[in-house]
Amino acid sequence: MNILVSNDDGILALGVRTLATTLAAAGHRVTVVCPDRERSATGHGLTMHKPLRADPITDIYPPEIEAWACSGTPSDCVKLALGALMDTPPDVVVSGINHGANLGTDVLYSGTVSAAMEGAMEGLPAMAVSLANSKGGKFDLAAAFVRDLLSPDSHLPLPPATLLNVNVPNLASADLKGAKVTRQGIRRYHEQFAKRTDPRGKTYYWLAGEAIEDIDEDPHLPYPPDLRDALMAIPTDVQAIQEGYISITPLQSNLTAVTTLTTLSQWIPPDMGAA
């Protein structure tokens, strides 16, 4: 299988090196295109007003892996790989392994998820993979899980513009309870801006966020009762990680609030905006 690997932690990150090496050892053709430095929480940002640079990396990956360090964002990396760096399109795009979980509303900010989404938007099977420990941990276990998902006997049953957001708890294999298909949960953060002064006497701010609350369900989502009951039977990604399971959540690029369409259509008068 021809696999494109990217991330948002940078080309030197242990997570992506472990993932790429594991997939190459399993016989896959692996191309790595990652930011040249950490680009966490960049979302789906693209570089539009300056050139992108890509430098081949030959000293930290096995020789059978073609690796590039890109000056842009994670989404830039995937776009550049697909449009210029790879001779043939990959069979799958894998982003990660991220240093830290991407659960719930994290996916809206995550460069890891956005890199995978870029692949999905190009019609390719894609997944984002994160280890639920920002200080490092058992990347080997997460890499082995991805390897097994991409085995010759496996097939990702994904519709277009859909990706799998995989989060792996930082546990020993003996303590891991298995894997569950999940839905996106909610994470709330206590955000603080540390106010500081630079050597020139100018004020700057440093954002720090800490997850203080994980919520299984947003009570404001306008689901009809039957759909809400069906969704509540499926655990959230947050819940699965807390219980020691690998979380596998399908995500899509279409953010339309489908359950609101009918209500909103009835609210707007048919002659509104008429001359």
List the helices and strands and how they pair.
Elements: E1 2-6, H1 14-25, E2 29-35, E3 54-57, E4 66-70, H2 74-85, E5 92-99, H3 111-121, E6 126-131, H4 139-149, E7 162-168, E8 178-181, E9 186-197, E10 203-215, H5 225-232, H6 237-242, E11 245-252, H7 261-267
Parallel strand pairs: 1-2, 1-5, 2-4, 5-6, 6-7, 8-11
Antiparallel strand pairs: 3-4, 7-11, 9-10
Helix pairs in contact: 1-4, 2-3
Report on the architecture of this protein.
This protein has 275 residues and is of the alpha/beta class. It has 2 domains: 2-182 and 235-260, 3-Layer(aba) Sandwich (Stationary-phase Survival Protein Sure Homolog, Chain: A); 186-231, no CATH class. 24% of the residues lie in helices and 29% in strands. The strands form 2 sheets. The chain has a 9-stranded mixed sheet, sandwiched between helices. Strands 9-10 form a two-stranded antiparallel sheet. The protein is globular. The termini are far apart.
Give the biggest sheet. Answer: 9 strands, mixed
* String of helices and strands: EHEEEHEHEHEEEEHHEH
Mean pLDDT: 89
**Strand order of the main beta sheet, please?**
3-4-2-1-5-6-7-11-8
| pLDDT < 50 runs, ≥5 residues | none
State which percent range the strand residues make up.
25-35%
Number of E-type strands: 11
Q: Which class of the largest domain in CATH terms?
A: Alpha Beta
Helix-strand makeup class: alpha/beta
At the fourth CATH level, what is the homologous superfamily of the largest domain? Survival protein SurE-like phosphatase/nucleotidase
CATH topology of the largest domain: Stationary-phase Survival Protein Sure Homolog, Chain: A
Please tell me how large the radius of gyration is: 20 Å
User: Helical amount among residues, as a percent range?
Assistant: 10-25%
The CATH architecture of the largest domain: 3-Layer(aba) Sandwich
Can you tell me the number of structural domains? 2
Shape: globular
Distance between the termini: 58 Å
